[in-house]
Design brief:
mainly alpha, 3 helices, about 0% strand, flat
């Protein structure tokens, strides 16, 4: 048996409460410049406690950050938000 809906409650009203009201004007997106040194974050955290050899862990984590920056830069470029003068 299906339950009866409460009177006065509609889906649009619930969605408006959850998501909020639409803004009148939205700022245009600013151009994004990718970092020139993705490994800086890994180095700023200090020696890695994840492996016996800190250098191996740092190399692998840095390569992960480099790939993340490449992927993010590709997404930015695909959406036309890459700052002028930056190469993807």
């Amino acid at each position: 048996m299906s339950k009866r809906r409460r009177p006065g409650v509609n889906k649009k009203g619930i969605e408006a409460k959850f998501w909020g009201e639409a803004a009148g004007e939205v700022e245009p997106a600013r151009a994004i410049s990718p970092t020139s040194d993705p490994g800086a974050l890994v180095r700023s955290l200090g020696p890695s406690p994840l492996a016996v050899d800190e250098k191996d862990a740092t190399v692998h984590l840095t390569s992960v950050y480099h790939e993340a920056v490449r992927t993010a830069t590709a997404l930015v470029a695909a959406n036309g938000l890459l700052a002028a003068g930056d190469d993807a």
